[in-house]
Amino acid sequence: MPNFIIGELFCGPGGLALGAKRALVRKGGSSHRILHGWATDYDRDTCYSYRSNICPERPGSVICADIRKIKFQTLARISKINALAFGFPCNDFSIVGRQRGMDGVYGPLYHYAVEALKFFKPIWFLAENVNGLRNSDDGRAFGIICSEMAEAGYALYPNLYKFEQYGVPQSRHRIIIVGIRKDQDISFAIPSTRPYLGLNVSCRKALEEPPISSRAHNNEQTKQSPQVIRRLNYIKPGENAFTAQMPEDLRLKVLGAKISQIYKRLDPDKPAYTITGSGGGGTHVYHWRENRALTNRERARLQTFPDNFYFCGSKESVRKQIGMAVPPRGAKIIFEAILKTFAHISYESVPCNMTVNISKDSLRMLRKSRPEQLALG
Question: In this structure, how many other beta carbons lie within 10 angstroms of the beta carbon of residue 237?
């Protein structure tokens, strides 16, 4: 089977999609690729970005709507698919936030991805979420999600990917679950990080080689206040507002947890710390030399989006899209491993670094929040 046609739920601006689009495996005289079928997301700007960069020739294949209101039959009419991807919303599982887990607004939305597996019956799927999912609901939420995916008919291969070990210039750790339909009698292996050892994944290289063109899109600088500029003058590369030595009048009056990224400058010789999609003052990621926050184009580079990838919407909307995306470079590596698996091409691999454990009692307890009506018809 040379090609797969993929559908995508919670698609974002196209980080996973760009990785899938660029994935290519050759065996003999055949090329193995992943082709776009359809995608959906609830955010208008996000959908515009996806259409503009992933499928400009088929804008109607991207449906902008709340997943709770979409009929799967509508998606099926756009294109048949035999693969599925979904980065189901992570807001309620992230360690930065209130961690509501299954009781949050977004936590239960994974149910729609499970129902999509049952409806479309793809040969394989790829699901992505934050590392915080492992500990949500005392670790039981992850077990429930995997249990329901397995019950839908899939063998699961979950792994915590540290993307800086795969050539991404950013310390970004995400759970990726690859599922293969059980009737395929085939096993997936986690791609090894060894081929990427020794790569220069410093943020200096990412942002300066080559320099960003003055005509690049999404490259507007933030106007920093005099006080922020004064504060940054005292913060060295790799330091934040709490570890730097500065006058008392510039110190932050923060009670409780002190997030280490607040007014943190990048260390130019290391990968960037995690690029986020939201947050107030001091969370925008700060240049190691210049007294300013990064531009959205610089954030996009640290996420491995090419400079010609145009993000639609306001400056804050673009920041959100970039921060919530999967790095295309990392996604491409995983998608190519999937293609090699089905093409029966061997590749260097490592064991899964995650296990799933769940009792029947906890499964019954945490299945209390079900959507009343799922979009099947």
Answer: 17
Q: Give the tens place of pLDDT for each residue, 176-193.
A: 999 999 999 999 999 999
Give the DSSP H or E segment for 328. Answer: helix 328-343
Over residues 336-358, the pLDDT tens digits come to 999 999 999 999 999 999 887 65
Q: First and final CA of the chain: distance in angstroms?
A: 29
Q: At what angle do helices 328-343 and 15-22 cross, to 10 degrees?
A: 40
Residue 11: pLDDT band (50, 70, 90) is very high
pLDDT of residue 370: 47
Q: Has this prediction a pTM greater than 0.85?
A: yes
Nearest to 23, CA basis, from 235, 336, 243: 336
pLDDT over 90 percentage in the chain: 76
What is the pLDDT at residue 372?
Answer: 41
Contact criterion met (CB below 8 Å) for 121 and 164: no
Is 312 in the active site? Answer: no
* pLDDT > 90? residue 274: yes
The crossing angle, in degrees rounded to 10, of helices 140-151 and 110-120 is 10
> Would you say 334 and 349 are in contact if contact means Cβ atoms under 8 Å apart?
no
Q: What is the mean pLDDT of the chain?
A: 89
**For 3-199+326-366, which CATH superfamily applies?**
Vaccinia Virus protein VP39 (3.40.50.150)
Catalytic residue among 47, 55, 90, 146: 90
- Identify any residues that bridge with 4 across adjacent strands, giving them in sequence order: 34
d(CA 99, CA 101): 5
Structure tokens at 141: 């939420």
User: How far is the C-alpha of 323 from the C-alpha of 159, rounded, in Å?
Assistant: 21
Q: Which two tokens stand for residue 127?
A: 């699901």
Residue of 361, 28, 349 lying closest to 178 (CA atoms): 349
Whole-angstrom Cα distance, residue 123 to residue 111? Answer: 19
Q: Where are the beta strands (DSSP E) in 243-372?
A: 349-350
Please give the helix or strand (H or E) that residue 208 lies within, else none. Answer: helix 203-208
